[in-house]
Amino acid sequence: MYQSIEIAPRAMSKPAAFVCLFFDDKVLRESDRALDKPVKGALAAALKRAEVSGSAGESHVVDAGRARYVLVGLGEARKLDARTMRQVGAAAVRALDRIGAATAALQLVGLSTEAMPAERAAQALAEGIGLAAFDFADFKATTKKEGKVKALKLGSNDSTLTTALRKGLALADSTNFARRLGATPPNVATTTYVAAQAQKLARGSKGRLKCRVLKGPALVREKLVGLINVGKASENPPCLIELTWSPRGARKTVLLVGKTICYDTGGLSLKINNGMKGMKYDKNGGMAVLGAMHAIAHTIRPSCRVVALLPAAENSISDEAYRPDDIITYLNGVSVEVTNTDAEGRLVLADALAWGCRKVKPDAIIDLATLTGGVVVALGSACAGLFCNNDKLRGRIECAAEGTGDRVWRLPLWEDYREMMKSKHADIWNSAPVRNAHPIQGAAFLSYFVDEKTPWAHIDIAGTSNIDSDQSPFVAGPTGFGVRLLASVLENWE
Ligand code: BES
Ligand code: MN
Ligand code: ZN
Fold first, then answer.
1. Which residue intervals of 319-466 are DSSP H helices?
2. What share of the chain is helix, strand, coil (3-state, %, to 5)?
3. Among residues 263, 370, 361, 352, which one has the least CA distance to residue 308?
4. Per-position b or e across 424-433, b if 16+ CB within 10 A of its CB
5. 260 CB less than 6 Å from ligand 1?
6. Catalytic residue list contains 206
7. Burial class of 366 by CB neighbour count within 10 A (0 to 12, 13 to 18, 19+)
8. Is the dihedral of CA 175, 178, 184, 185 positive or negative?
9. Span from the CA of 186 to the centroid of ligand 3 (angstroms)
10. What is the structure's pLDDT at 66?
11. 231, 234, 376, 377: which sits with the fewest CB atoms below 10 Å from its CB?
């Protein structure tokens, strides 16, 4: 697969391939008819073939004349949306990679429909291209498959769409940055490594992002007891990573929090059988927040202040491990009885939420976490679970979710569920001794650490942040879920 993709400033005169998009009426679009003349109608003829249906994301390569033509189906015209365009982009880049094209002209003129302006279509297409080009081969030593061509240059026949295409590619880059970190194994991507990546992101932002890492005695001083306890058993020390985007004249502050458990063994409540495999992805909430900060600094540049907090720890076992029955008292005064050391995410998130409310004084909070297996059972990988105490914030998130394809579905957080979290020997426990409503228990627990008046959303991404099978434009593995969602939410924040 291509390692780099760029958008040419102008239309290309002699590309190796043309990417032509067609609807399920199987008629060559007007702007592509000129291409068909020199090849004596080969394109129109190809569309008429029985195996060509024009369904969204199907692709065919036609060899004719000096160039090659990648024909990609758009499906039904009246159903064309950003989701389809991302699948179309994915199909296009896979076909281009297969034929080893180093340059390609995207035939985009006249693509806008009533439902979707051309800019939106172009941005989504480029997102699909960039997302489908993700290939995690960092650790392939002997079986690395080198693509025929490393770089792809794309031009559009509609030069007004260059900015939208570049934006789409840039957002895919930020997403792929999060995916790469997510895929990095736990023997490499330790708490210290993730902190170093955050520092590197800040250094590469030309001073636009500031990074600070609290560790060791600073955790004690700041009473970050969740991190201290969850991280105790590991050689890799826990830390709280903070990134700040602070534009001049900012009036509002949004706090982003991402669960960053670099590995989750379950601790003394050890995970069983196959329950542990894949727990390198337990840092994906944090990685999504890092990816969003990447997009914020490089592409979105919102006018509000954004503070990102990543509570990072490894949930491991040793004679120093925290245990079921331990009681921990947080900096906001809430005491927690540990009933299960595998409900560790909420313990470190509680630090970031309580500390964030006190120090950052945010106008809104959004946290992302691979918090529960229960949300995977309930919602699968089609959407994440959303909990929100504020209708305006919820509207913003739901709107961004539809637009970016990082879908969410709201679950309830009534007082009944908060009651469930009350414990015998402390204020609350980290998990009720019943299997009921696990995703909601998680959210209810977190609510004890958020100032009541602050609009807050918790997004449980356990089912969406990595997937077991391909779901175009994504291949099996990390999806970077949340990066484009957060970027889109913040883009429109005053
Ligand atoms: N990291 C897991 C949640 C998870 C499970 C993510 C499966 C992805 C796939 C979390 O720390 C956890 O272990 N949650 C427990 C909570 C329970 C002990 C209350 C769970 O969901 O079983
Ligand atoms: Mn766990
Ligand atoms: Zn976990």
1. 345-360, 373-379, 391-404, 415-420, 438-447
2. 40, 20, 40
3. 352
4. eebbbbbbbe
5. no
6. no
7. buried
8. negative
9. 13
10. 84
11. 377
Distance, in Å, from the CA atom of 336 to the CA atom of 343, rounded to the nearest integer, reads 12
Strand partners, 481: none
Q: Compute the chain's Rg from CA coordinates.
A: 24
Contacts of 252 (CB under 8 A, 6+ apart): 304, 305, 363, 364, 493, 494
Answer yes or no: same fold for 4-156 and 172-491. Answer: no
Ligand 1 close to Cβ of residue 344 (< 6 A): yes
In angstroms, the CA 147 to CA 160 distance is 31
Q: Please state, as a whole number, how many other Cβ atoms lie within 10 Å of the Cβ of residue 404.
A: 24
Tell me how far the alpha carbon of residue 172 lies from the centroid of ligand 3, in angstroms: 26
Distance 428 CA to ligand 1 centre (A): 18
Give the span between the Cα atoms of 373 and 282, in whole angstroms: 11
The fold of the 172-491 domain, in CATH, is: Aminopeptidase (3.40.630)
Query: Rounded to 5 degrees, what angle do the CA atoms 427, 222, 244 make?
Result: 110
Instruction: Give me 306's structure tokens.
Output: 């954004």
Query: Exposed, middle or buried by CB within 10 Å (0-12, 13-18, 19+), for 385?
Result: buried
Domain boundaries, the chain: 4-156, 172-491
CATH class of the domain defined by 4-156 = alpha beta
**Position in ligand 1 atom list of the atom nearest CA 344:** 11
Ligand nearest to the CA of residue 438, numbered in listed order: 1
Looking at residue 434, its pLDDT comes to 96
Tell me the C-alpha distance between 139 and 65, whole Å. Answer: 41
**Which amino acid type is present at position 275?**
G
Across the chain, which has 494 residues, the per-10-residue mean pLDDT values are: 96 95 97 94 97 97 93 95 98 97 97 90 98 95 79 96 98 98 98 99 97 98 99 98 98 99 98 95 99 98 98 98 98 98 99 99 99 98 98 98 98 98 98 97 99 98 98 98 99 90
Q: Using a CB cutoff of 5 Å, list residues around ligand 2, an ion.
A: 264, 342, 344
- Read off the pTM: 0.98
Q: State the Cα–Cα distance between residues 249 and 253, nearest whole angstrom.
A: 11
DSSP one-letter code for 475: P
Q: What is residue 143's predicted lDDT score, i.e. its pLDDT?
A: 78
CA distance 417 to 448: 12
Answer whether the bond into residue 473 is a cis peptide, omega within 30°. Answer: yes
Please tell me what DSSP assigns to residue 37: T
Is the Cβ–Cβ distance between 160 and 12 less than 8 Å?
Answer: no
342 within ligand 1 shell (Cβ under 6 A): yes
The predicted structure's pLDDT at residue 93: 98
Per residue in 7-42, is it b (16+ CB within 10 Å) or e — as a string? bbeebbeebbbbbbbbbbebebbebbeebbeebeeb
Two tokens, residue 430: 């980290």
Tokens of 413: 């957080």
